Amino acid sequence: MDSRKLKAIAEELHALDKTVNDYHTRKRWLLDEIVRLARNRPCPEEKKIQIDIEIPPAPRPRVMRTGITYYPKTYRDFKTKGAFLLRQAWKGETLTGALRIEIVFLIKKPKSKIRKLTKNDRLPCYKTRGDIDNRIKSLFDILQDAGVIQNDSQIYSIQADCWFAGVDEEIVTSIYLSEIL
């Protein structure tokens, strides 16, 4: 950069320090400029994984009288099967950078929700026993066990949707991963 330009910017910042309102207006403009520049950068490559398994909500760990904690057998079996399916679907290296993840859970519709008019429609999954945050925890466990991610602390952004599938629709979990750094 030109030294005259740097000197002009420094003088402008010094002048802006005198008036708070102008400073915040200029700061807002600079932030908008940063966003504009960031959008012109190439987007990180998005990787998609689909597994044909319903992700159950993560249960609470059980505690024995001796103080040893464990998960129920059904959850341990799910983790084994889910990690196996993920290893088959994932062909890349273990992701080590900061991750943005989008998840779409498509789960089986309970019999109480099947109606003649809406049996083939997708319905949002709410007011059910398994919360979406517990399903996310289960998914992160198998992502880590399968070697797709190193640790779930890498994830900085999550978007998750949970839907009841139509009667004729396939049960599937779709995962979109974007490694930023």
Question: How are the elements arranged and paired?
Answer:
Blueprint: H1 3-18, H2 20-40, E1 46-51, E2 62-63, E3 69-70, H3 73-89, E4 99-107, E5 123-124, H4 132-146, E6 155-164, E7 172-179
Parallel strand pairs: 4-6
Antiparallel strand pairs: 1-7, 2-3, 4-7, 5-6
Helix pairs in contact: 1-2, 3-4
Describe the structure in your own words.
The chain is α+β, with helices and mostly antiparallel strands. It folds into 2 domains: 3-40, no CATH class; 46-179, 2-Layer Sandwich (60s Ribosomal Protein L30, Chain: A), CATH 3.30.1330. The protein has helices spanning 3-18, 20-40, 73-89, 132-146, and strands at residues 46-51, 62-63, 69-70, 99-107, 123-124, 155-164, 172-179. The strands form 2 sheets. A 5-stranded mixed beta sheet has the order 1-7-4-6-5, with helices on one face. Strands 2-3 form a two-stranded antiparallel ribbon. Helix 1 packs across helix 2. The two termini are 27 Å apart.
Q: Which key terms come to mind for this protein?
A:
38% helix, 181 residues, alpha+beta, 60s Ribosomal Protein L30, Chain: A, five-stranded mixed sheet, two-stranded antiparallel ribbon, extended
